[in-house]
Design goal:
Blueprint (H helix, E strand, L loop, with lengths): L9 H11 L7 H7 L4 E5 L2 E4 L4 E4 L2 H4 L8 H13 L12 H13 L4 E7 L2 H18 L7 E5 L8 H6 L3 H4 L9 E4 L4 H4 L7 H19 L4 E6 L15 H12 L2 E5 L13 H5 L5 E4 L11 E6 H10 L13 H16 L2 H20 L5 E7 L2 E6 L15 H12 L1 E2 L1 E3 L2 E4 L7 H24 L5
Parallel strand pairs: 3-13, 5-6, 5-7, 7-8, 8-9
Antiparallel strand pairs: 1-2, 2-3, 4-10, 9-10, 11-12, 12-15, 14-15
Bound molecules: 3-[O-phosphonopyridoxyl]--amino-benzoic acid (PXG).
Length: about 475
């Protein structure tokens, strides 16, 4: 029988972990050799591991704990809903109050084209719903040949069969037969890699990158293209912030060919970019919007799809039964937490806090970090940020791939008590939206120390020219 939390040592937990728990996106043997760091508790923007180390969580759990840890409004909402009704389904002409109330609230806080929601429990399930729903929409309209969904390389849309297919991660496509037929990828709008060398300004490059979508639509035949999907800012891909010209041009192209626009807001939604949703920051009007993570600040699994009126009207008025759904679609406890979370985002005015206060402040301190000898580029959007580590700052030369400079830097972050993600040579952050200016100073001081330590390693090991 498992023993209680406190009666085991860290080493005992690590041994049990290695013996039984297959972690996501993990080299199982490598982790078993090293042992996991076991996180025991959290408050506000800080975590503590089982050894008592305090860690500043600059990744909000995994891009999700928007309101920070320890918010009693969410905890109380979950416990009272567990007592009243821990579960009931929404399949057979039944509903629960929290699911209805959250659907109503989401219709209020999302852009005006959204009046309906389809619930699931994760971003991956949301994107599976997207694939089935866009194809169903075109079938109902008598255009069943409109099957193709265009996505982008280095996108992340989840880990289910549809999610990994929509995503553009090479490592995922190399395993298990993704992408499934009917999903194609264009190049991502990453100026540093694809625009800078060509001598394009960011704005010029944004239009060029959007043009790749038009070329793909024309190559496939517009009559065969169902939808385009993209994250407003690619999160897991390394916080790739598109030029301001990109999304408006994407919108114009999709409008011209009648192609549906899907905004995957799993990371960008609920305040992360300084607006309620990333599509508002970047100025486009999606037909569907996938959400998860920030809807409950990660306190409990919940995700889904906001369905725009263009699609909802067709499915409701002409579609008949839509043969799709999950046991936990509209889970009452998850929805009760979602309600408390969205209400708290409003009460604390966190979207404005990001837009007017801590977002601009993060941009300012990141601009200062750009002066560090290891940093070739520093970018932020709201409370997402990326530092590109380069070998030669003046020329912007990247490190050789085998150096894995990002992993070296991440190792220092781990030891210094700040959590950043390394995506290739990009060091990225997405701290809780409740972070204060003083805490940003504390976070940046830790990051600067890690950059210095990484630079010292690079010098000692001869990785610099
Ligand atoms: N869309 C986007 C844009 C995401 O970021 C998903 C869909 C899938 O959500 P679920 O809830 O099914 O995981 C995500 C998830 C990382 C990392 O390493 C990012 C995610 C998940 C795991 C790791 O940055 N994003």
């Amino acid at each position: 029988m498992p023993t209680s939390h406190s009666s085991r040592t860290t080493a005992e937990w690590q041994a049990a972990d290695a013996a039984h728990f297959l972690h996501p996106f993990t080299d199982f043997q490598g982790l078993a050799r090293k042992g996991s760091r076991i996180i025991a508790r959290a408050d506000n923007i800080y975590l503590w591991d089982t050894e008592g180390h305090q860690i500043l969580d600059a990744m909000s759990g995994l891009w999700c704990v928007n309101v920070g840890y320890g918010q009693t409004a969410l905890i109380d909402a979950a416990t009272s809903q567990l007592e009243a009704l821990p579960f009931y389904n929404a399949f057979f002409q039944t509903a629960t109050q929290p699911a209805i109330a959250l659907a109503e609230l989401l219709a209020q806080v999302t852009p005006p084209q959204f009046r309906h929601v389809f619930f699931g429990s994760s971003g991956s399930e949301g994107n599976d719903t997207v694939v089935r729903m866009v194809r169903r929409y075109w079938e109902v309209l008598g255009q069943p040949q409109r099957q193709i969904i265009i996505s982008r390389r280095n996108a992340y849309h989840g880990s289910t069969v549809a999610g990994s297919s929509l995503g553009g991660m090479e490592g995922m496509h190399a395993q298990g037969g993704a992408p499934v037929p009917g999903i194609v990828h264009i190049q991502q709008p990453y100026w540093w890699e694809h625009g800078r060398a060509a001598g394009l300004s960011r704005d010029e490059f944004g239009r060029v990158a959007a043009g790749w979508l038009e070329a793909e639509i024309l190559a496939r035949g517009p009559e065969n293209v169902a939808a385009f999907i993209g994250e407003p800012v690619q999160g897991a891909g390394g916080v790739i912030i598109p030029p301001a010209t990109y999304w408006p041009e994407i919108q114009r192209i999709c409008d011209r060919y009648g192609v549906l626009v899907v905004s995957d807001e799993v990371i960008c939604g609920f305040g992360r970019t300084g607006s309620w949703f990333g599509c508002q920051t970047f100025g486009f009007k999606p037909d569907l919007m996938t959400f998860a993570k920030g809807v409950t600040s990660g306190y409990i699994p919940l995700g889904g799809v906001m369905v725009g009126e263009r699609i909802a009207r067709v499915l409701i008025e002409q579609g008949g039964e839509f043969n799709h759904g999950y046991t936990y679609s509209g889970h009452p406890v998850a929805c009760a937490v979602g309600l408390a979370n969205v209400n708290l985002l409003r009460k604390l005015d966190l979207v404005r806090h990001v837009h007017d206060d801590v977002g601009p402040y993060l941009a300012q301190v990141f601009a200062e970090l750009a002066g560090h000898p290891l940093v070739g580029d520093a970018e932020t959007c709201g409370l997402m940020g990326a530092l590109l580590l380069v070998k030669d700052k003046a020329r912007g030369t990247p490190f050789a791939p085998e150096v894995e400079i990002g992993m070296v830097c991440r190792g220092h972050c781990f030891a210094q008590g700040v959590i950043m993600r390394a995506v290739g040579d990009r060091m990225i952050i997405a701290p809780p939206l409740v972070i204060t200016r003083t805490q940003i100073d504390e976070m940046v001081a830790l990051i600067r120390r890690c950059l210095d330590l990484t630079l010292a390693d690079a010098q000692a090991r001869g990785w610099l020219d």
